[in-house]
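[Automated response] Your request has been received and processed.

Submitted sequence:
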Amino acid sequence: QILSTTILTKNEKEDEIRRLKDDLQFKFRNDEDKLRTQLSNNYTIRRLQTKQQKLLLLHTLERNLFEEKCTKSMDIIVQRHGLLKKHHEQTKEVELRQLANLHKMRNDFTHKQHQTEIMNFNEYNNRRQKELIKRHALNQKQFPKNIKIKQAEIKRQYKEAYNAQSQQYKALKEKIRQDYLHATSSQSREELDSKLKTIKDEQRRKFDMLYLRFEEAVQKMLDQQNIKLNSDQERERNSLKTVVDEDQRTLLHLQEESYRRMEQQHSDERRQLERNIEDRLRKLNEQMQRELAEYNEDRTRQISILAEKQRAELLQLENEITKLGINIADLTDTMQDIHFFAANTAVQLSPHDKQMLSRNSQYNNRASMISLQHSNSSNSFISNTTNANGTTTTTHK
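Generated structure:
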């Protein structure tokens, strides 16, 4: 238009063209600076978005790995506690079975011992009774010999009395005859014979009485010896029976006392075993509760450390954004295509991070909004607390 106009001179046209070129160059430089500035801002925003996205992915990965580690640790603890409880139950069954076998063996041994004692006691009593019967039979066998000795003694006494009376009779008969020879003739032979016959009858009567006394003495002696022998033997039998009965009662009493002591010992052993089992179970529960408490304490401590680390990283990123003079709301508004930024971020990540990025893109989009708020960025963590019974309680912090 300037060249085709006829109003301006050639110099004016050249000046106008030169001025127009200067204006165009100035406008181009201004547009170029604005474009460079815009591109620089866009690059910075996208770099920060990528950095923020990568940081959020890293935090998600850290939380997932931490939860997986805690889950494995808890599974190991639960499995170990299950094995400890199973070992406790099996040990309890073995101890109860061993104690029952021990009590059965002790009962059998005591029963056999008592039976052996009773058998030995009966054998001993039978031997004593046989010895007593044998001694009584020997006394019965020796009894006639003793009787003969005493009977000969009585017979000897009878003979001495008989001889004395015979001598007296002969002396009296001879005296009567002498008196008859020196007597007067008034005494006849018949009177002498009558007197001698009377003396002889009297002598015979005395001999008969002496023999009767002899027979009575022998019979009385026999009766006394029989009664004495029988009474002595009966007394010995009664004494032996009394001793045997007393020994039997004493033996049975001792055996009953032994049974009572054994039952009391069994009862004490069972109670002691139950106390030991209860103490062992209580200590086992205390140990498991202590391990769970230590696990929860260590988990809480690691959660705090991880949350503080992530909060510090997010705060550092926010400080970097603020130092660059970028508004956090503007940075959030420019995130229009999350897949573009995720793909741009995935170029700088490892293969494992790329996989996590593809699986958690939607979560990261929501988390990017939350992470830009300082009040929520340091506390957005999930805390799981494990109770003593093995259950897990989830708490949002």
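Summary generated for your ticket: The first helix runs from residue 10 to 182. The longest strand covers residues 382-386.
If you did not submit this request, please reply to this message.
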